[in-house]
Amino acid sequence: MALTLKDIQLPVAVEMDEFEKKFRNSMKSKIPLLDKIMTYIVKRKGKQMRPLFVFLSAGVTGNIEESTYRGASLIELLHTATLVHDDVIDDSNYRRGFFSINALWKNKIAVIVGDILLSQGLLLSIDNDDFNLLKIVSEAVKEMSEGELLQMEKARKLDITEDVYFEIIRQKTASLIASCCRVGAASVGSDPKVIESMGLFGEKVGMAFQIKDDLFDYGDDEIGKPLGIDIKEKKMTLPLIHALKNSSWTEKRRIIRIVKNESHKKKKVQEVIEFVKKSEGISYTTSVMERFYQEAISILHEMPDSPYRESLENLVQFTIERTK
After folding, report:
1. Which of 82, 139, 181, 283 has CB atoms 3.0–4.6 Å from 202's, for a disulfide?
2. Tally of structural domains, the chain
3. How many of the other CB atoms lie within 10 Å of CB of 143?
């Protein structure tokens, strides 16, 4: 029987509960409007994967301490700030099935709330001298922003190679999971080599996670993500990049023309999906995801055996076997 997130959380269940209380309290404000918005942000939290990576990584490498809670809070604060700003940039009205902050309170307030979350994270670290944790998370935020810009730049021409794709997803997605694992290890005073190993483990997990997400675009209608959404948004992901690389010049030109000019037509999107499947884009991408998964597990196995390590291994498996 497949493990649930609740099963995976077991070694850190007490810490995760405690973290939730601490995080909820840290979000309270004396300004009524801000308090209302912060309460709403806390209420719509997702699967809590990021704090889970922090606590399990801390458990794998040492004893969970007060600084581990602060590290997990720092990641949540800075990452939530970037999401609030992203929704403004994308003019998005929804986030995880809930209304976005900008949809409910308009762009101006959303940008200010993002700034407040960012400054809360900075102050939490500075007030507790957690400069090492702040450095790790700040580097990740910088990488995520650079990845976003690189994707925007390349999206205009639709000329993304495999190497560029890997660099985009490393920066946009993998850098955040890597920072969770590095923060977990750093918060318990681990050796720099151990911190870097855990960071590399997190990066491999992040790569596999994003590739799985990109495969959803070519899946069945019952999955969580709408079918063909990346194609409609003119995003070049690995299944399409590989399929184009192995097609004739004429076929390549035809498919790129569809993505550029006709991606709003359902029939045309289906045509691209069929082309990718026929050109072995799916099987190739699945094998690349599997490779990153195996690399992550082999790094993790360098750490001593423990319930934390077992849960981290199960968490990695969960991320690539998920159906949404």
Report:
1. 181
2. 1
3. 19
Is residue 260 predicted with pLDDT exceeding 90?
A: no
Contact 292, 210 (CB under 8 A): no
Bridge-based pairing state of the strands 98-99 and 94-95: antiparallel
Residue 254 has pLDDT above 90, yes or no: no
pLDDT (0 to 100) of residue 226: 53
CA-to-CA dists, residue 154 to 143, 247, 295, angstroms: 16, 21, 28
- 87 pLDDT exceeds 80? no
Residue 150, by phi and psi: left (phi above 0), alpha (psi -120 to 50) or beta? alpha
Residue at 168 is within a domain: yes
Q: Is residue 323 part of a domain?
A: no
Among 53-62, 147-156, 177-186, 270-279, where is mean pLDDT lowest?
147-156
CATH number at residue 84: 1.10.600.10
Amino acid at 208: A
Q: Do 9 and 312 meet the contact criterion of CB atoms below 8 Å apart?
A: no
In whole angstroms, give the CA distance from residue 120 to residue 126: 10
Amino acid at 175: S
Q: Which domain, by its residues, includes 268?
A: 5-318
Tokens, residue 263: 């991606």
Assign 45 to helix, strand or coil: coil
Torsional sign, CA 116, 121, 124, 130: negative
Contact 207, 197 (CB under 8 A): no
324: in domain: no
Backbone angles phi, psi at 312, to 5 degrees: -65, -40
Higher-confidence residue of 28 and 176: namely 176
pLDDT reported for residue 220:
52
